[in-house]
Amino acid sequence: MPLNNRLKEYRAKINVNQTEMGSLAGVSRQTISQIERGDYSPSVTLALKIAKIFNVSVEDIFSYEEDDVNE
């Protein structure tokens, strides 16, 4: 997927597990797990909530890389 994230790294910095992170962000543990694995792209609202929890910009946690479509 073109959306990469550093959520697991940031979560480790504040020493919270996926369940606790889900509670902080208002989502399930499974959603946090799917985001970390790259199986789920969060909504803009959820990405903003997550960034606010860590007091960083969305771009610090999430980065988008376009697929090469010039072939």
Automatic annotation (TrEMBL):
SMART domains named among the record's database cross-references: HTH_XRE
InterPro entries (alphabetical): Cro/C1-type_HTH, Lambda_DNA-bd_dom_sf
This protein's UniProt keywords: DNA-binding
Annotated HTH cro/C1-type domain residues: 7-61
PROSITE patterns in alphabetical order: HTH_CROC1
UniProt xrefs under PANTHER family: DNA-BINDING PROTEIN (PTHR46558:SF12), TRACRIPTIONAL REGULATORY PROTEIN-RELATED-RELATED (PTHR46558)
Protein name: Helix-turn-helix transcriptional regulator
